[in-house]
Design brief:
The chain is α/β, with parallel strands linked by helices and 228 residues long. The chain is built from nine helices and eight strands. It is 43% helix and 17% strand. Bound molecules: pyridoxal-5'-phosphate.
Length: 228
């Protein structure tokens, strides 16, 4: 199992570097977040052992148990799932990043509940670029006001934007969704927001995301295999 994780992690890193080169980008401009939701702790240990420091989790209870058991390792934990109000305190206490902030109330609670001995919590605003009514994430026109609001909160640090587009097989269609987020990110930067993170791309679409400027891809199954 350890060898499989090591091999698959290396293969994903190689693909990231190859895509970066293919689209005229520096290999080190695209970071890898290993998404470990639904995976056993042994696989996280194997990936960490193979040099992977950043892990993403979606479900708070599952994540807290892993964080507790791996407390002796220098892992950076990212929360990437939907954030409910009653979960913000534990998230603010135990994570370094939250990728899925999509309203003021959640941003305020994360800010207020971030322990003072920890550095500001890194956050991304989740944007719904596919405009499906059922999905989480703010609409494009809501991004700038929410970004300005977040920038006024001292215990959170707005790092960028994140999206989970509707799954599409067609490469050009994948690129189109990611391009929409890239344009929003650029516009915020032109408006004076100091953003360095564009969190987009998963196992099935990270080539398109890298082609469109992703700085952080969130990869689960391509590293760890299918989830329980
Ligand atoms: C599960 C998940 C991923 C990883 O998906 P894979 O298809 O397994 O790579 C990435 N981002 C988010 C927000 C997820 O929930």
């Amino acid at each position: 199992m350890t060898m499989t994780i090591r091999t698959q992690l290396a293969a994903v890193k190689k693909r990231i570097a190859d895509y970066a080169e293919k689209y005229g980008r520096k290999a080190d401009s695209v970071h890898l977040l290993a998404v470990s939701k639904g995976q056993p702790i042994e696989k996280i240990e194997a990936a960490f052992q193979a040099g992977q420091p950043d892990f993403g989790e979606n479900y708070l209870q599952e994540a807290l148990s892993k964080i507790d058991r791996l407390a002796h390792k220098a892992i950076t934990w990212h929360f990437i799932g939907p954030v409910q109000s009653n979960k913000t305190r534990k998230i603010a206490e135990h994570f370094a990043w939250v990728h899925s902030v999509d309203n003021k109330k959640i941003a305020t609670r994360l800010n207020d509940q971030r322990p003072s001995h920890l550095p500001p919590l890194n956050i991304c605003i989740e944007v719904n670029v596919s405009n499906e009514s059922s999905k989480s994430g703010v609409r494009a026109e809501e991004v700038l006001p929410l970004a300005r609001y977040c920038m006024g909160l001292p215990n959170i640090k707005l790092r960028g934007l994140m999206t989970i587009p509707a799954p599409q097989k067609d490469f050009a269609a994948q690129r189109q969704s990611f391009h929409a987020l890239f344009l929003l990110w650029q516009r915020l930067r032109e408006q004076g927001c100091e953003l360095d993170t564009l969190s987009m791309g998963m196992s099935d679409d990270f080539e398109a995301a890298i082609a469109e400027g992703s700085t952080l891809v969130r990869i689960g199954t391509a590293i760890f295999g299918s989830r329980a």
